[in-house]
Design goal:
about 475 residues; alpha+beta; Collagenase (Catalytic Domain); 3 domains; five-stranded mixed beta sheet; 8 helices; globular
Length: about 475
């Protein structure tokens, strides 16, 4: 279905930048940025409805966010080919491509669950881009086996009185966690707090600094710390904590994060996209990490949407960085022994994610340039012993949850698990080498990961070489 909607927006411009970019510059409004020809940020909010086989779209609203566009004007076009979805913004008259980005969505994940086979659901989604000065056509595309195909188009025409330029309610003061330069020259990371009461503002500030240090202690973020600006926002909650329906805990937190997403107890996402985007609009951002105010193990990450972590858990450092890998660089999960809600694909195709492969043609391995001469493809490892150990851990994990044991017992189980995993995988013949190790993408067979161990596989402390390269590629898109 491809319904069209005409949306129009008032604009102000300076001629030269308009001729070059098609976007409207205004006086800079972001913290620490001198007056410059930068456009405001436009956001198209829409509803994505469907099931496992069908989908349709409807416009919610078009808004002009409070701040200027934070992105690098020289990197408006996404050439990474990442994401299950992509949107293009084109000059309607000339067809010139002005802006594009790939992304994943909560709907996209949900559509692969059992529920989606027999039910419809609707999710709010958003597209953000520099405010145009000319009428533009926005094409939303979905990845198919043959490439990206249009699934929805709308026209944004800069003249309509219904575009919302009002300010949403303030989420509170903006916290400057790290300022390394102008937002247009840096990766702009926003750390949001959810489930913090007004009295817990100090705790959020401490937690936000703690998460930032966790992230920048991990390579390659450590080496690129100066390429990041980091901000914090924390709308006050009426109650402390976020909902966990499986434990009978229900809350209405400002950002809507919750455990038990898609029926998986550890999976923390928000489906309150409208609320999330209104809060986030008060900071310059390209990427979001949400700190859930809680101690029970959990988190989640959606490429170019957001990542989450339960910040008071012992394993928050691992979970926060792992989930940020999903959001930031579209890294796939390499594990396959933990339960997930997603159904396996009906037939095997080559994944688009940079760190997993179906190895349909070993001669065309996507990370072949990182494989040392003499490393066999596929690369042997003691998978049978590893899987036997992991099955035992997963059984203990289920028993602890079913019995309602204290979280410290789960944390201790994970500590023992990582100790054993590091010993087993570290002793492998090809440990630390790039190859193609079977097991990944939630499947024990038929998919391969680049190294025997990685943050995306176990609670390891380091990304593999392929994941590091993928992360650095994204940093290069946003930082000058």
């Amino acid at each position: 279905m491809k319904p069209n909607a005409r949306i129009v927006v008032s604009f102000f411009c300076f001629g030269l930048l308009i001729l070059i970019t098609g976007f409207a510059p205004v006086a800079a409004r972001r913290p620490g940025v001198a007056a410059a020809a930068m456009p405001r940020t436009m956001r198209v909010d829409y509803y994505h409805t469907g099931n496992s086989t069908s989908q349709w779209f409807s416009l919610d609203r078009v808004v002009i966010e409070p701040l200027d566009w934070p992105g690098n004007p020289g990197q408006a076009i996404d050439e990474t080919q990442l994401g299950n979805y992509r949107f293009d913004v084109r000059d309607q008259a000339s067809g010139k491509l002005l802006y594009s980005r790939g992304f994943n969505s909560v709907f996209g994940e949900w559509s692969t669950t059992e529920e989606a086979r027999h039910a419809n659901r609707t999710f709010s989604e958003s597209l953000r881009f520099p405010t145009p000065v000319v009428p533009v056509e926005i094409a939303l595309e979905e990845r198919k086996e043959s490439g990206f195909q249009d699934v929805w188009k709308i026209v944004v025409d800069p003249k309509d009185k219904f575009v919302d330029t009002s300010l949403p309610p303030s989420p509170g003061p903006l916290l400057e966690l790290q300022k390394m330069g102008a937002p247009a020259d840096k990766v702009d990371l926003l750390v949001l707090g959810d489930g913090y009461t007004a009295k817990e503002r100090g705790k959020f500030e401490s937690d936000a600094h703690r998460f930032m240090e966790m992230l920048f202690s991990t390579s390659p973020f450590r080496e690129h710390r100066k390429d990041f600006d980091v901000w914090g926002l924390c709308p006050a909650a009426e109650e402390s904590g976020i909902p966990r329906p499986s434990s009978g805990i229900h809350r209405r937190s400002p950002l809507g994060t919750s455990y038990d997403t898609f029926g998986t107890e550890r999976y923390v996402l928000t489906t309150e996209n409208r609320a999330l985007r209104d809060v986030a609009s008060f900071a310059p951002y390209e990427f979001i990490e949400i700190l859930a105010n809680g101690a029970t193990y959990g988190g989640g990450g959606i490429f170019n949407q957001f990542a989450t972590v339960a910040i008071d858990n012992l394993w928050a450092g691992y979970v926060g960085v792992h989930e940020f890998g999903h959001e930031f660089a579209a890294l796939a999960d390499e594990y396959y022994t933990s339960d997930v809600a997603y159904l396996p694909p009906e037939h095997k195709t080559e994944p688009w994610e940079p760190n997993v492969t179906a190895l349909l043609d070993p001669d065309k391995l996507k990370w072949k340039d990182l494989v040392e001469k003499g490393t066999p493809i596929p690369t042997p490892w003691n998978q049978e012993e590893f899987d036997r150990f992991e099955r035992g851990i997963q059984q203990q994990r289920k028993e602890l949850r079913a019995a309602g044991k204290p979280e410290k017992e789960m944390e201790e189980l994970f500590r023992k698990e990582r100790e054993k995993e590091d010993a087993m995988l570290g002793s492998e013949k090809f440990a630390g080498k790039v190859g193609a190790f079977e097991g990944g993408n939630y499947q024990a067979k038929g998919y391969y990961r680049p190294e025997v161990n990685c943050i995306m596989f176990t609670r390891h402390t380091a990304f593999c070489a392929v994941c590091r390269r993928a992360i650095e590629r994204v940093i290069g898109m946003y930082a000058k």
